[in-house]
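Appendix B. One record, verbatim.
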Amino acid sequence: MSWQISSAVTYNARCARSLLSILLHSLQKKYTKPSLPNSTLLFTLAPSSTTPPEVLSEITSTLTQLYPEHVGCISAPLPCQYVDLSKRDGPHSCSLAYALVNGVSFRSTISGRAQTQVGRWHAARQRRTGDANGTMQVNMEDSQMRLGDFSGSDGKVNWEDVWDRAANSACHGIDLDSEMLPEPLRNLDPTAIHNILYFSDKAPEGLATALEGTFPQANKLSLIASSTPFITGRPVTLFHNGSIFSHGAVGIAFNSSPSSPPPVVELSFPPLVALSTNLNVTSSEGNLILSLDSGNPTQLLLSAIQRHGLASLHTTWVGKEDEFYVGVIDPSSQQLTQLHRINAGDPSRGTIALDAASAPKRGSIVRVS
Protein backbone atom coordinates (compact mmCIF):
# COMPACT_ATOMS: atom_id res chain seq x y z
CA MET A 1 0.00 0.00 0.00
CA SER A 2 1.61 3.24 -1.13
CA TRP A 3 0.05 5.49 1.49
CA GLN A 4 -1.72 5.22 4.81
CA ILE A 5 -2.71 8.77 5.64
CA SER A 6 -3.18 11.99 3.73
CA SER A 7 -1.97 15.33 4.99
CA ALA A 8 -3.97 16.19 8.07
CA VAL A 9 -5.92 19.46 7.89
CA THR A 10 -7.21 21.62 10.75
CA TYR A 11 -9.71 24.46 10.37
CA ASN A 12 -10.57 27.02 13.05
CA ALA A 13 -13.69 29.07 12.38
CA ARG A 14 -15.24 31.94 14.30
CA CYS A 15 -18.64 30.79 13.08
CA ALA A 16 -19.43 27.08 12.97
CA ARG A 17 -21.65 27.47 9.91
CA SER A 18 -18.73 28.72 7.83
CA LEU A 19 -17.18 25.24 8.14
CA LEU A 20 -19.89 23.87 5.86
CA SER A 21 -18.69 25.71 2.77
CA ILE A 22 -15.09 24.80 3.64
CA LEU A 23 -16.00 21.13 3.90
CA LEU A 24 -17.83 21.05 0.59
CA HIS A 25 -14.95 22.75 -1.20
CA SER A 26 -12.12 20.85 0.49
CA LEU A 27 -13.45 17.31 0.72
CA GLN A 28 -15.39 17.22 -2.54
CA LYS A 29 -12.68 18.74 -4.75
CA LYS A 30 -9.32 18.27 -3.07
CA TYR A 31 -9.94 14.73 -1.84
CA THR A 32 -12.05 12.86 -4.36
CA LYS A 33 -12.93 9.19 -4.24
CA PRO A 34 -11.28 8.25 -7.55
CA SER A 35 -7.90 9.59 -6.41
CA LEU A 36 -8.16 8.09 -2.92
CA PRO A 37 -10.01 4.77 -3.22
CA ASN A 38 -11.12 2.79 -0.17
CA SER A 39 -10.30 5.70 2.11
CA THR A 40 -11.76 6.36 5.54
CA LEU A 41 -12.40 9.84 6.87
CA LEU A 42 -10.75 10.34 10.25
CA PHE A 43 -11.92 13.49 12.04
CA THR A 44 -12.36 15.36 15.30
CA LEU A 45 -14.85 18.17 15.74
CA ALA A 46 -14.48 20.71 18.56
CA PRO A 47 -17.53 22.98 18.90
CA SER A 48 -17.92 25.71 21.48
CA SER A 49 -20.46 25.34 24.25
CA THR A 50 -22.76 27.77 22.39
CA THR A 51 -22.58 26.18 18.95
CA PRO A 52 -26.21 25.73 17.82
CA PRO A 53 -27.17 22.03 17.82
CA GLU A 54 -28.71 22.29 14.35
CA VAL A 55 -25.43 23.63 12.92
CA LEU A 56 -23.44 20.89 14.62
CA SER A 57 -25.83 18.30 13.21
CA GLU A 58 -25.49 19.79 9.74
CA ILE A 59 -21.70 19.67 9.91
CA THR A 60 -21.58 16.05 11.03
CA SER A 61 -24.19 15.05 8.45
CA THR A 62 -22.13 16.66 5.71
CA LEU A 63 -19.00 14.87 6.84
CA THR A 64 -20.59 11.45 7.11
CA GLN A 65 -22.53 11.75 3.84
CA LEU A 66 -19.42 12.72 1.90
CA TYR A 67 -17.55 9.78 3.41
CA PRO A 68 -19.83 6.95 4.60
CA GLU A 69 -16.73 5.18 5.91
CA HIS A 70 -15.59 7.38 8.78
CA VAL A 71 -14.20 7.40 12.30
CA GLY A 72 -14.58 10.50 14.44
CA CYS A 73 -15.49 12.12 17.72
CA ILE A 74 -16.36 15.40 19.35
CA SER A 75 -13.27 16.61 21.18
CA ALA A 76 -12.22 19.54 23.32
CA PRO A 77 -10.86 22.65 21.56
CA LEU A 78 -7.13 22.92 21.06
CA PRO A 79 -5.30 24.70 23.91
CA CYS A 80 -4.87 28.41 23.33
CA GLN A 81 -1.09 28.14 22.87
CA TYR A 82 -1.60 26.09 19.69
CA VAL A 83 -4.07 28.30 17.85
CA ASP A 84 -4.51 31.88 16.73
CA LEU A 85 -7.12 33.17 19.17
CA SER A 86 -8.13 35.91 16.74
CA LYS A 87 -9.45 33.18 14.44
CA ARG A 88 -11.15 31.16 17.15
CA ASP A 89 -12.64 33.97 19.21
CA GLY A 90 -16.37 34.01 18.57
CA PRO A 91 -19.65 33.08 20.24
CA HIS A 92 -20.13 30.05 17.96
CA SER A 93 -16.52 29.16 17.15
CA CYS A 94 -15.71 25.64 16.03
CA SER A 95 -12.65 23.72 14.85
CA LEU A 96 -12.32 20.64 12.67
CA ALA A 97 -9.34 18.37 12.04
CA TYR A 98 -9.47 15.59 9.48
CA ALA A 99 -7.43 13.29 7.27
CA LEU A 100 -8.17 10.51 4.79
CA VAL A 101 -6.58 7.21 5.71
CA ASN A 102 -6.29 3.60 4.58
CA GLY A 103 -6.84 0.93 7.18
CA VAL A 104 -9.30 -1.27 9.02
CA SER A 105 -11.84 0.67 11.06
CA PHE A 106 -13.42 -0.83 14.16
CA ARG A 107 -15.88 -0.21 16.95
CA SER A 108 -15.12 -1.52 20.45
CA THR A 109 -17.40 -2.15 23.42
CA ILE A 110 -14.70 -3.55 25.72
CA SER A 111 -15.24 -1.97 29.12
CA GLY A 112 -12.55 -0.19 31.05
CA ARG A 113 -12.09 0.87 34.64
CA ALA A 114 -15.37 1.40 36.47
CA GLN A 115 -16.17 4.96 37.43
CA THR A 116 -14.90 5.88 40.88
CA GLN A 117 -17.69 6.31 43.42
CA VAL A 118 -17.74 8.44 46.52
CA GLY A 119 -17.37 6.35 49.68
CA ARG A 120 -14.99 3.74 51.00
CA TRP A 121 -12.20 2.87 48.62
CA HIS A 122 -13.29 -0.78 48.48
CA ALA A 123 -16.98 -0.14 47.81
CA ALA A 124 -17.86 -0.94 44.23
CA ARG A 125 -21.14 -0.22 42.45
CA GLN A 126 -23.93 -1.81 44.45
CA ARG A 127 -26.08 -4.48 42.86
CA ARG A 128 -29.75 -4.46 43.77
CA THR A 129 -31.99 -7.48 43.49
CA GLY A 130 -35.69 -7.94 44.22
CA ASP A 131 -37.05 -10.56 46.58
CA ALA A 132 -40.38 -12.36 46.39
CA ASN A 133 -42.13 -9.39 47.98
CA GLY A 134 -40.65 -6.96 45.50
CA THR A 135 -38.37 -5.42 48.15
CA MET A 136 -35.05 -4.19 46.80
CA GLN A 137 -32.02 -5.66 48.56
CA VAL A 138 -28.40 -4.65 48.22
CA ASN A 139 -25.95 -7.42 47.40
CA MET A 140 -22.73 -6.38 49.14
CA GLU A 141 -20.90 -9.65 48.51
CA ASP A 142 -19.87 -8.58 45.00
CA SER A 143 -19.03 -5.04 46.09
CA GLN A 144 -16.16 -5.97 48.41
CA MET A 145 -12.68 -6.20 46.98
CA ARG A 146 -11.15 -9.63 47.40
CA LEU A 147 -7.82 -8.84 49.06
CA GLY A 148 -6.70 -12.41 48.43
CA ASP A 149 -6.25 -11.49 44.78
CA PHE A 150 -3.43 -9.19 45.85
CA SER A 151 -1.74 -11.55 48.32
CA GLY A 152 1.78 -12.82 47.79
CA SER A 153 3.21 -16.28 48.41
CA ASP A 154 3.65 -15.44 52.10
CA GLY A 155 -0.03 -14.66 52.44
CA LYS A 156 0.54 -10.95 53.06
CA VAL A 157 -1.40 -8.35 51.12
CA ASN A 158 0.60 -6.33 48.59
CA TRP A 159 -0.77 -2.89 49.36
CA GLU A 160 1.07 -1.33 46.43
CA ASP A 161 -1.11 -3.41 44.10
CA VAL A 162 -4.25 -2.74 46.13
CA TRP A 163 -3.82 1.00 45.81
CA ASP A 164 -2.74 0.83 42.19
CA ARG A 165 -6.05 1.43 40.45
CA ALA A 166 -4.64 0.16 37.19
CA ALA A 167 -3.94 -3.22 38.78
CA ASN A 168 -7.35 -3.13 40.41
CA SER A 169 -8.98 -2.52 37.05
CA ALA A 170 -7.07 -5.36 35.44
CA CYS A 171 -8.26 -7.77 38.15
CA HIS A 172 -11.82 -6.60 38.63
CA GLY A 173 -12.99 -4.01 36.13
CA ILE A 174 -11.85 -5.51 32.84
CA ASP A 175 -13.06 -8.93 31.74
CA LEU A 176 -11.22 -9.66 28.51
CA ASP A 177 -12.28 -13.31 28.44
CA SER A 178 -15.94 -12.47 27.88
CA GLU A 179 -15.41 -9.33 25.80
CA MET A 180 -13.27 -10.10 22.80
CA LEU A 181 -11.31 -7.90 20.46
CA PRO A 182 -13.44 -6.03 17.88
CA GLU A 183 -14.33 -8.43 15.08
CA PRO A 184 -12.59 -6.49 12.24
CA LEU A 185 -9.29 -6.86 14.11
CA ARG A 186 -9.47 -10.54 14.98
CA ASN A 187 -8.11 -11.95 11.73
CA LEU A 188 -5.45 -9.33 11.07
CA ASP A 189 -1.79 -10.30 10.93
CA PRO A 190 -0.23 -8.61 13.99
CA THR A 191 3.05 -8.18 12.11
CA ALA A 192 1.26 -6.17 9.42
CA ILE A 193 -0.27 -3.65 11.84
CA HIS A 194 2.21 -0.98 12.83
CA ASN A 195 -0.10 1.82 13.95
CA ILE A 196 -3.49 1.96 15.68
CA LEU A 197 -5.40 5.16 16.42
CA TYR A 198 -8.68 5.29 18.32
CA PHE A 199 -11.11 7.66 20.04
CA SER A 200 -12.47 6.46 23.37
CA ASP A 201 -14.83 7.25 26.22
CA LYS A 202 -13.43 7.92 29.70
CA ALA A 203 -12.45 4.29 30.29
CA PRO A 204 -10.10 3.04 27.55
CA GLU A 205 -8.19 0.57 29.76
CA GLY A 206 -9.92 -2.57 28.49
CA LEU A 207 -9.33 -1.83 24.82
CA ALA A 208 -5.78 -0.65 25.50
CA THR A 209 -5.01 -3.92 27.26
CA ALA A 210 -6.55 -5.99 24.46
CA LEU A 211 -4.66 -4.11 21.75
CA GLU A 212 -1.38 -4.39 23.61
CA GLY A 213 -1.85 -8.13 23.98
CA THR A 214 -2.76 -8.69 20.32
CA PHE A 215 -0.55 -6.09 18.61
CA PRO A 216 2.42 -5.68 20.97
CA GLN A 217 4.67 -4.19 18.28
CA ALA A 218 2.21 -1.59 17.02
CA ASN A 219 2.26 2.06 18.00
CA LYS A 220 -1.01 2.97 19.69
CA LEU A 221 -2.42 6.46 20.02
CA SER A 222 -5.71 7.22 21.76
CA LEU A 223 -7.72 10.39 22.27
CA ILE A 224 -10.27 10.63 25.08
CA ALA A 225 -13.39 12.19 23.61
CA SER A 226 -14.74 15.29 25.28
CA SER A 227 -17.76 15.20 27.60
CA THR A 228 -20.79 16.25 25.56
CA PRO A 229 -23.92 16.06 27.78
CA PHE A 230 -24.68 19.76 27.18
CA ILE A 231 -23.83 19.62 23.47
CA THR A 232 -25.37 16.40 22.16
CA GLY A 233 -27.02 14.96 25.26
CA ARG A 234 -24.52 12.06 25.30
CA PRO A 235 -21.68 11.36 27.78
CA VAL A 236 -19.30 11.33 24.80
CA THR A 237 -20.06 11.42 21.08
CA LEU A 238 -18.31 8.94 18.77
CA PHE A 239 -18.94 8.42 15.03
CA HIS A 240 -18.37 5.24 13.04
CA ASN A 241 -19.70 4.44 9.57
CA GLY A 242 -23.07 6.15 9.92
CA SER A 243 -23.67 5.33 13.59
CA ILE A 244 -23.30 7.51 16.67
CA PHE A 245 -22.20 6.01 19.99
CA SER A 246 -22.18 7.24 23.58
CA HIS A 247 -19.64 4.79 24.99
CA GLY A 248 -16.81 2.45 24.00
CA ALA A 249 -14.33 3.39 21.32
CA VAL A 250 -13.92 3.76 17.56
CA GLY A 251 -10.66 3.61 15.69
CA ILE A 252 -8.60 2.43 12.78
CA ALA A 253 -5.69 0.02 12.40
CA PHE A 254 -3.24 0.96 9.65
CA ASN A 255 -2.12 -1.81 7.32
CA SER A 256 1.56 -2.19 6.50
CA SER A 257 3.79 -4.72 4.82
CA PRO A 258 5.00 -7.30 7.36
CA SER A 259 8.51 -6.92 5.95
CA SER A 260 8.62 -3.15 6.45
CA PRO A 261 9.98 -1.88 9.76
CA PRO A 262 7.51 -0.15 12.08
CA PRO A 263 7.75 3.62 12.00
CA VAL A 264 9.63 5.34 14.78
CA VAL A 265 7.42 7.44 17.03
CA GLU A 266 8.96 10.44 18.75
CA LEU A 267 7.33 11.59 21.96
CA SER A 268 7.21 15.35 22.45
CA PHE A 269 5.65 17.49 25.16
CA PRO A 270 4.29 21.03 25.14
CA PRO A 271 6.70 23.77 26.28
CA LEU A 272 6.62 23.91 30.06
CA VAL A 273 8.37 25.96 32.73
CA ALA A 274 10.10 23.81 35.36
CA LEU A 275 9.05 24.98 38.81
CA SER A 276 11.23 22.58 40.77
CA THR A 277 14.42 20.62 40.56
CA ASN A 278 14.34 16.84 40.37
CA LEU A 279 12.40 15.34 43.27
CA ASN A 280 12.20 11.79 44.55
CA VAL A 281 8.78 10.19 45.06
CA THR A 282 8.98 8.79 48.57
CA SER A 283 5.33 7.73 48.90
CA SER A 284 2.36 7.31 46.56
CA GLU A 285 -0.98 5.48 46.52
CA GLY A 286 -3.41 5.13 43.65
CA ASN A 287 -3.32 8.41 41.74
CA LEU A 288 -2.03 10.32 44.80
CA ILE A 289 1.51 11.49 45.52
CA LEU A 290 1.80 11.46 49.31
CA SER A 291 5.35 12.74 49.73
CA LEU A 292 8.21 14.13 47.66
CA ASP A 293 11.72 14.06 49.13
CA SER A 294 9.93 13.01 52.35
CA GLY A 295 8.15 16.36 52.37
CA ASN A 296 4.68 17.80 51.76
CA PRO A 297 4.08 17.75 47.96
CA THR A 298 1.46 20.51 47.95
CA GLN A 299 3.62 22.81 50.05
CA LEU A 300 6.53 22.14 47.69
CA LEU A 301 4.30 23.15 44.77
CA LEU A 302 3.11 26.34 46.50
CA SER A 303 6.68 27.28 47.42
CA ALA A 304 7.78 26.74 43.82
CA ILE A 305 4.93 28.99 42.60
CA GLN A 306 6.05 31.72 44.98
CA ARG A 307 9.70 31.43 43.92
CA HIS A 308 8.72 31.96 40.29
CA GLY A 309 6.81 35.15 41.01
CA LEU A 310 3.33 33.69 40.65
CA ALA A 311 2.37 34.62 44.19
CA SER A 312 2.57 37.57 46.58
CA LEU A 313 2.63 37.47 50.36
CA HIS A 314 -1.05 36.70 50.75
CA THR A 315 -2.28 35.80 47.27
CA THR A 316 -1.35 33.21 44.68
CA TRP A 317 -1.67 34.81 41.25
CA VAL A 318 -2.75 31.76 39.32
CA GLY A 319 -5.59 31.95 36.82
CA LYS A 320 -8.15 29.21 36.31
CA GLU A 321 -6.62 28.52 32.89
CA ASP A 322 -3.22 27.76 34.43
CA GLU A 323 -2.36 24.09 34.76
CA PHE A 324 0.43 22.36 36.63
CA TYR A 325 2.04 19.04 35.88
CA VAL A 326 4.22 16.34 37.38
CA GLY A 327 6.72 15.03 34.86
CA VAL A 328 8.55 11.72 35.26
CA ILE A 329 12.27 11.98 34.48
CA ASP A 330 14.46 9.21 33.07
CA PRO A 331 17.44 9.09 35.48
CA SER A 332 19.90 8.11 32.76
CA SER A 333 18.99 10.66 30.09
CA GLN A 334 17.36 13.29 32.34
CA GLN A 335 14.62 13.52 29.72
CA LEU A 336 10.89 13.78 30.34
CA THR A 337 9.16 10.44 29.70
CA GLN A 338 5.67 10.93 31.16
CA LEU A 339 3.50 13.92 32.02
CA HIS A 340 0.59 13.96 34.49
CA ARG A 341 -1.72 16.92 35.04
CA ILE A 342 -2.29 17.89 38.68
CA ASN A 343 -6.00 17.72 39.49
CA ALA A 344 -5.95 18.89 43.08
CA GLY A 345 -3.80 19.40 46.14
CA ASP A 346 -4.39 19.53 49.88
CA PRO A 347 -1.98 21.88 51.71
CA SER A 348 -2.81 20.40 55.13
CA ARG A 349 -2.56 16.73 54.20
CA GLY A 350 -0.01 17.41 51.51
CA THR A 351 -1.35 15.01 48.90
CA ILE A 352 -1.38 15.83 45.20
CA ALA A 353 -3.99 14.14 43.00
CA LEU A 354 -3.01 13.41 39.41
CA ASP A 355 -5.18 13.02 36.33
CA ALA A 356 -3.94 9.45 35.88
CA ALA A 357 -4.86 5.89 36.78
CA SER A 358 -1.80 5.64 39.04
CA ALA A 359 0.83 8.02 40.32
CA PRO A 360 4.58 7.50 39.75
CA LYS A 361 5.89 4.72 41.95
CA ARG A 362 8.09 5.20 44.98
CA GLY A 363 11.63 5.91 43.87
CA SER A 364 10.59 7.67 40.64
CA ILE A 365 12.30 10.95 39.81
CA VAL A 366 9.82 13.72 39.00
CA ARG A 367 9.78 17.43 38.28
CA VAL A 368 6.93 19.88 38.87
CA SER A 369 6.07 22.21 35.96
